[in-house]
Amino acid sequence: MYTTVSGPMHPPLAFGYCRKSTTGQREESIEAQQRAIVAYAAAMGYQLVHIYKDHGNSGRSGERPEFQQMLQDAVPAGVQFIIVHKLDRFFRNAERQTLIEAQLRRQGIRVLSASEHFDDTPQGQFMRNITKAINQWYSANLATEVMKGMRENAMGARNTGGPPPLGYAVDKTTGKFVLQPTEAAAVQMIFRMYRQGCGYTEIIDALNAAGHVTRRGRPFGKNSLYDILRNEKYTGTYVWNRLAPADPDGRTNRRNLKPRSEWVCVEGGMPQIITPEELPQTSFRCLYGKSVLPAVRPGLLWRLRRLHVRGGPPLQIPWQARGIQVLHLQRQKAPACRRGACPPRACRQPGRCGGRLSPAGHLQPRQHGHAVRGPAAIHGAGPPAH
């Protein structure tokens, strides 16, 4: 892909890298960074092979498409230098930057700054490390200041940035959320069908058949429904600061949440699309990954109990009934039932199972890896009918 010849008759090869984040702070444009890189390479006598550009990516994370592509291309292309306008364009995480620079040095590649000059003396390396630490502090401090402003907006139930949830639009004058009727109808349809026991596939087919699309104008998928069915904002409660912080690499997981005590919740801060009573039932059904069927045929329970034998390693059994996953059951040691004490539906030969079959009360769903006593433990309702 690239010319890899360098030597006495050929100038050293170099890549350039430019980055512009989305935080809105005052930064040099991509074009200005590129001009500085080109001028520096010409002054140093380097042959600039390619310039990689990341638009709208934070320097705290290494998960940047052009940045990762550059690291992959560096060794095959035979480059000796990667040139950035400033070190903060390469990274704003001192630990990660030091690690990647060390990996590149082992491949004979150095990272150079076009506007900051660090030599190889102990003093020069000390100043380089200080600069990386300052860059990280600046990013972390800026994030703290931005969070203060976002919290004030959240306390007033105003949009803190980003697209609104499906079913809402943002009033440009007040910054508050208003209903988007067509999308709100789709949200109501999703909750209604889910409460009726419809699976994701059935709901998605109905939405697409009705002409509904996601916020990005695409057909609905399972991930779209997952987020919608867990969004408390649809009950009229404004919620902010739910997500757990990013990991050390800057990656976030939308399913990792902070404790509720850290959330900002404003009752009545959003136009209501569903009633508050609809969401808790949905949230409980989603606890096991799919819907919980209120009643199950005894024959299916009997066949499952035959697998629930005494002893053996822990086992989770996903059980499908009418296309809906009912429970995750765990095999566990259970006391032997006394002869004649087995319930008729738990043992078709009362008194003859010899304790090999566990009573129905030992069939337990799992909640986040811990056994619980079933729906009654959360909602006060009885277990699924046998």
Write the element-wise H/E pattern from the N-terminal end onward.
EHEHEHHEHEEHHHEEHHEEEEH
| Record field, number of beta strands | 12
Lateral arrangement of strands in the main beta sheet: 2-1-3-4
Low-confidence stretches: 282-296, 309-386
Beta fraction: 5-15%
Radius of gyration over all CA atoms, rounded: 29 Å
Q: Helical element count? A: 11
Structural class: alpha/beta
Task: Characterise this structure.
- The protein is of the alpha/beta class.
- The chain contains eleven helices and twelve strands.
- The strands form five sheets. It has a four-stranded parallel β-sheet, sandwiched between helices.
- Strand 1, helix 1 and strand 2 form a beta-alpha-beta unit.
- It is elongated and about 75 Å long.
Task: Outline the secondary-structure elements.
Elements: E1 13-20, H1 30-44, E2 47-55, H2 65-77, E3 81-84, H3 87-90, H4 94-106, E4 110-113, H5 122-155, E5 168-170, E6 177-179, H6 181-195, H7 200-209, H8 222-228, E7 237-240, E8 264-267, H9 278-285, H10 298-307, E9 316-321, E10 324-330, E11 366-367, E12 370-371, H11 376-379
Parallel strand pairs: 1-2, 1-3, 3-4
Antiparallel strand pairs: 5-6, 7-8, 9-10, 11-12
Features:
single chain; 386 residues; alpha/beta; 4-stranded parallel sheet; two-stranded antiparallel sheet; 11 helices; 15% strand; disordered C terminus
Summarize the structure in short:
The chain has helices at about 30-45, 65-75, 85-90, 95-105, 120-155, 180-195, 200-210, 220-230, 280-285, 300-305, 375-380; strands at about 15-20, 45-55, 80-85, 110-115, 170, 175-180, 235-240, 265, 315-320, 325-330, 365, 370.
